[in-house]
Specification:
This is YecA family protein. The chain is mainly alpha-helical and 184 residues long. It has one domain: Four Helix Bundle (Hemerythrin (Met), subunit A), CATH 1.20.120.740. The chain is 61% helix and 5% strand. The chain contains seven helices and two strands, in the order H-H-H-H-E-E-H-H-H. A two-stranded antiparallel sheet has the order 1-2. It starts with 7 loop residues before the first helix and ends with a helix.
């Protein structure tokens, strides 16, 4: 059960806890947490939970309402990290980044900004060394998306360009994971 995918109610619990205990320095939502944990699962070294867990909260663990609540959040986070590692390592077809969606002029638009921002946060905690040029270009695809401000899409939003950018993120994350696996 340590790497069984999370259920909808598990994601709801995580989202609620992030909203309840988070601040401007913490991971804001499940999409960002998914990107963060994906980078941790993908990096050159395994990062100890004593380092990566407080980083979710901007460096300081929350003052949990109860020990059970803290344990459940930790357990679900570790389980999701293990699931991502298993998917990226042996079942890449099952790997799907948890992007957000928004409504734009009556149409649903997928947004990856928060996921990409979380991914960069995970890289920072993992202290990734410099990448070869081809892989640095893959990482740049993710970094560019993290820099976008999608809180309000512009009136001249180009859906085709946006979708091309989104389509490049998953293969980039897989390529980065695969590279670091060979370096471990």
């Amino acid at each position: 059960m340590q790497n069984a995918p999370l259920a909808a109610n598990d994601y709801e619990f995580l989202e609620d806890a992030l909203l309840k205990y988070g601040d401007d320095n913490s991971v804001l939502n499940v999409s960002e947490l998914d990107g963060y944990l994906t980078a941790l699962a993908s990096g050159p070294v395994q990062v100890d939970i004593a380092e990566w867990f407080p980083a979710i909260w901007g460096g300081e663990n929350p003052d949990w309402q109860s020990p059970d609540e803290a344990k459940q959040f930790i357990d679900l986070s570790v389980r999701h990290l293990n699931t991502l590692a298993a998917q990226l390592g042996t079942d890449v077809q099952a790997f799907e980044p948890r992007f957000e969606t928004t409504d734009h002029h009556g149409q649903s638009v997928t947004l990856a900004e928060e996921w990409c921002f979380g991914y960069l946060r995970g890289i920072s905690v993992s202290n990734w060394p410099e990448l070869p040029a081809q892989l640095a270009a893959q990482l740049e695809l993710i970094a560019q998306c993290a820099e976008e401000d999608n809180f309000e899409l512009p009136a001249n939003f180009d859906a085709n360009q946006h979708n091309q950018q989104l389509a490049a993120i998953k293969p980039a994350a897989i390529a980065l994971h695969d590279y670091w696996v060979t370096q471990r």
